[in-house]
Amino acid sequence: MRAVGPDAGYNSIGVRCRLTMTTEPQSFEEAVSRFEVFLKENGHSSNVMWVEPSDLVLSGEHSVYVKLPTPISNVTRARDRFERGIGNELGITFGTICDLSNATCCYAWVPKDEIDRQYHLMGRGLKVTATTGSSRLNGILIRNQLRWRLLKLLHRRHTRLRDSLFGWKHCLKQACQKDTKLRPKLCLR
Questions:
Q1: Hey, where are the domains in the chain?
Q2: pTM score
Q3: pLDDT of amino acid 106
């Protein structure tokens, strides 16, 4: 694998990150193995923890609350996305959300169609990204369900922005169209 530029790149929502393009892996396990190597090379834990938007709460203070335990179905969803992305030749992105003390919270994303693939500058294989420098977010583990519900309630205004962490630019654009206060800060026009 080779990084594009020395530190190079910005992901689909303008967050500074490292980018690597690879040849198509033959299996989900091979893709994850490549991703783990990439994470380690870029200063992240190679222990991948797949997360979904429902597992996260944004605090608005450069950190993310992460609900534990994460559902086992998250791995299945990541695998299904991989198979759909590679099988339909739309590509697949594995990326980082936040860092925990012993793991990296990660996502798997597939464009919805050919136009979305082109819009996100995706190849037809595996694309891996990892946040770098000041773009890296800290994860705060939450095991208590009562505390989790309280945090969701306290930080509900950040809920719509949570999807933007997963590389889903169209979700961020929709949130900006509904909330004009967000436009100057976050929206890509």
A1: 2-186
A2: 0.75
A3: 96
* Cα distance between residue 164 and residue 162, in whole Å: 5
Q: Which token pair is 13? A: 């929502």
**5 burial type by CB count under 10 A (0-12 exposed, 13-18 middle, 19+ buried):** exposed
What are the φ and ψ backbone dihedral angles of 105, each rounded to 5 degrees?
Answer: -80, 125
Place of tokens 């870029």: 42
* Low-confidence stretches of the chain (pLDDT beneath 70): 1-23, 159-189
pLDDT of residue 145: 95
